[in-house]
Amino acid sequence: MKTLLPEDQARRTLELVVDLTDVYIKKDYPQLNRRERKAKEQMRLERTSADSQTIKYADIIDNSVEIVKYDPGFARIFLVECRSNLQKLTLGHKELFHEAIAIVNNSIASLNEKQSISRSNKNSRAYKQS
Q1: By three-state DSSP, how is residue 48 classified?
Q2: How far apart are CA 103 and CA 79, in angstroms?
Q3: pTM (2 decimals)?
Q4: C-alpha–C-alpha distance, residues 58 and 119, integer Å
Q5: Are the C-beta atoms of 104 and 86 separated by less than 8 Å?
Q6: Are 67 and 74 in contact (CB under 8 A)?
Q7: Hey, CA dihedral for 111, 114, 119, 122, is it positive or negative?
Q8: d(CA 124, CA 128)
């Protein structure tokens, strides 16, 4: 394989990509439900390098903010999975790790606030109609 990177950098990049590519996907493990696949994936990720876990933190940070905005219906499931991963993936860059925890927690709080406002508005409308 020809690469523009020096061989050692190309090899390390490939290792990181392999570490971060989901193995327990629905297509290959149709007998497992999402929760089971994510649990196996988490156990696999626990054995990855500090560099891989650091990249995972950055991925969690980016996705946590976006999912609340663009897919609030799925966001809670995703954020709980992220929180679970962060409880186990502790080898990476400490500052980024703490930032990821804070962003996941803030995203969950934001969802809770939106749901609370939505419930309050529904109750208010129901009260006005009666």
Answers
A1: coil
A2: 10
A3: 0.84
A4: 33
A5: yes
A6: yes
A7: negative
A8: 6
**pLDDT higher than 90, residue 118:** no
Q: How many CA atoms lie within 13 A of 119 on its CB side?
A: 6
Say if CB 108 and CB 60 are below 8 A apart.
no
Tokens 């649990």 appear where?
39
Local structure of residue 49 (DSSP, 8 states): -
Rounded CA-CA distance 79/101 in Å is 10
What are the two backbone dihedrals, phi and then psi, of residue 54, each rounded to the nearest 5 degrees? -65, -45
Q: What is the Rg, in whole angstroms, of the alpha carbon atoms belonging to the chain?
A: 19
Lowest mean pLDDT among 51-60, 66-75, 121-130: 121-130
CB 79 within 8 A of CB 119: no
Unique residue bearing structure tokens 């609340």:
68
Place of tokens 């991925």: 59
- Selection from 92, 59, 97 nearest residue 78 by Cα: 59
Structure-block tokens of residue 8: 């050692």
